Structure formats: C-alpha cells, structure tokens
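Lab intake sheet, docking and co-folding queue.

SAMPLE TYPE: protein with bound small molecule
LIGAND NAME: flavin-adenine dinucleotide
LIGAND FORMAT: SMILES
REQUESTED OUTPUT: full 3D complex as structure tokens
PRIORITY: normal
SUBMITTED BY: R.K., bench team

The fields below were copied directly from the construct record.
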Amino acid sequence: MNIIVCIKQVPDTVEIKINPETNTLIREGVESIINPFDMYAIEEGLRIKEKFDGKVTVLSMGPPQVKSALREALALGVDDAILLSDEKFAGADTLATSYTLTAAIKKIGNFDIIFFGKQAIDGDTAQVGPGVATLLEIPQIVFVRKIESIQNGKILAERITEDGYDVIESTLPIAISVVKEINEPRLPSLRGKMSAKRAEITIWNFDDLNLDEKFVGLNGSPTQVERIFTPKLDKHTEKWNDSPEEMAKKLAEKMQRFILK
Ligand SMILES: Cc1cc2nc3c(=O)[nH]c(=O)nc-3n(C[C@H](O)[C@H](O)[C@H](O)COP(=O)(O)OP(=O)(O)OC[C@H]3O[C@@H](n4cnc5c(N)ncnc54)[C@H](O)[C@@H]3O)c2cc1C
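RESULT FIELD (auto-filled):
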C-alpha cells in the first residue's frame, strides 16, 4: 500500500501575524507546528502501512523551515519526506496549492491513498484535499472518521455528516480527508527522533515539477485575500455602586429604554 500524506505547517494559533500589504501569513520568526488535523492523517497512514506493508511519504508545500515539520513526521515512522519549496510558490491560494501538490503527486507516481487533514487551522478552507482529488481525477471521501476495510482494490469508510455518518465504498486510488475522531496520534520514539535528525529530505522546486508558471503562487491564485482585520468592539461599560434595590431600578429603566429604542 503506497500512501502519501499531505501536511501543512501552520503558525501556533496565538501567534498568527498577517502581512498587511499582501494579506498573506508572516511565517518568519513565528513558532510553527504541524497542522493538528494532519497528525491524524499521518497516524492513519502509518496504521495502514503497518497492516498492509508499503510506504508512507509526507508531502508539504512551504518555505524551507517546513523541513522541521517533515522531520517530526519522519520521527513518527514515515519513510520519506518531500518539500515543495520555491519563491514562485509563495502566496498560493487553495487552487494554486492544489495544482502544485498535484504535480508533485504525479511525479511520485505510484500511490493508493492520499491523506489530508480535515482543514488547516489557519486558512481553514478545507479545499486543498478536494482540489487535489479533482485535479488528479480520482475519487475522494472527506471528513472520514473510520476506515472499515481495504480489500480487492476497494475501500470502505465512514464519513461524518451533520446528523450522523455515511458509509461509503470506493475504488482505489483515493483521496481522503480525516477528522480527529479517526484515531489517537502516536508520540515519536527516541530512536525515531534520532534517525529523523539525520534523514534526508527531498526538496523539489519549480523546475523539478512539470508546472505552468501561470498557475502557481500569488500570481497564479484567483483568490486573493482583500483585507484581514479584527472587528472593532464598541464596548461601553458603567460601574454602579448603589444599593441592590437602586441598581435593579436603574437596570429596569435602562432595559426599558433599550427595548423602546
Ligand atoms: C486567514 C487566511 C485566510 C485564507 N483564505 C483563503 C481563501 O478564502 N481562499 C483561498 O483560496 N485561500 C485562502 N488562504 C490561503 C490558504 O491558506 C492557502 O491556499 C493554503 O495553502 C491552503 O489553504 P488552507 O490553509 O485553507 O488549507 P485547507 O484546504 O483547509 O487544508 C486541508 C488540508 O490540505 C493539506 N494542505 C493544505 N495546505 C497544504 C500545503 N501547503 N502543503 C501540503 N498540504 C497542504 C493538509 O492536509 C490540510 O489539512 C487563506 C489564508 C489565510 C491565512
């Protein structure tokens, strides 16, 4: 079973900073983690490999510092790590991201399942998995909470819906996005951490992939974030120190005025 897991490095949520000119994330100098949902995708990939044999490759598009996320995945037991990094890829929207990842997946070639997290906690669109599946013209199941079986070139999976779940059967190869109910991600072993430190990470840039420059990075992105801002909170507070009766009366009057307004 050949598995590819697409992972995104995201800023630690409390430290998200946006470049006000381009409205893209400022990644430099920001503490980063593997997108939490992608940890479940890695775990599921590893479990399938342990059951059926094969190989798990992690794939990420991002700046050079994403190597640390890929090393984290290698420490968990992933076999190979590929980073797609080039200044031309910067500022990609979901379509340009899907297009670039798809070119890399085509270059990897042989795969049965491509795993994605349900969504990235910064961009939050949940579009990249479906985008890649569409460009590759393969089936997809999103929001998967359980893989029931894989046999005879087919997969049976449960995906969460608003009021329950569906059981879906599909042929392989397939793209799957996972929710956190699917498993409990493992922790890296000491041996895993040591070998991940020495492991080689393959880096592919624009010239390594069969890409059209018109469709990559900020210039190849039809969606561009116009403006990001924190809504102004117009808060007005008053402090009262009167007797409870007095305050209750004042409050009732205020509420009446508010209702009649
Ligand atoms: C605040 C904010 C708002 C944004 N809004 C939009 C928007 O409305 N429209 C738009 O097109 N773009 C938007 N972007 C840009 C968007 O972050 C990028 O396109 C990003 O690379 C992928 O989109 P996402 O973060 O929504 O990922 P999602 O589609 O939510 O990610 C789903 C899964 O896809 C995989 N994945 C995602 N990105 C990568 C990657 N770089 N490498 C490998 N795997 C990956 C992971 O498995 C991830 O769990 C926004 C970014 C920010 C910071």
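REVIEWER NOTE: The CA atoms of residues 79 and 243 lie 71 Å apart.
SIGN-OFF: pending second check by T.M.
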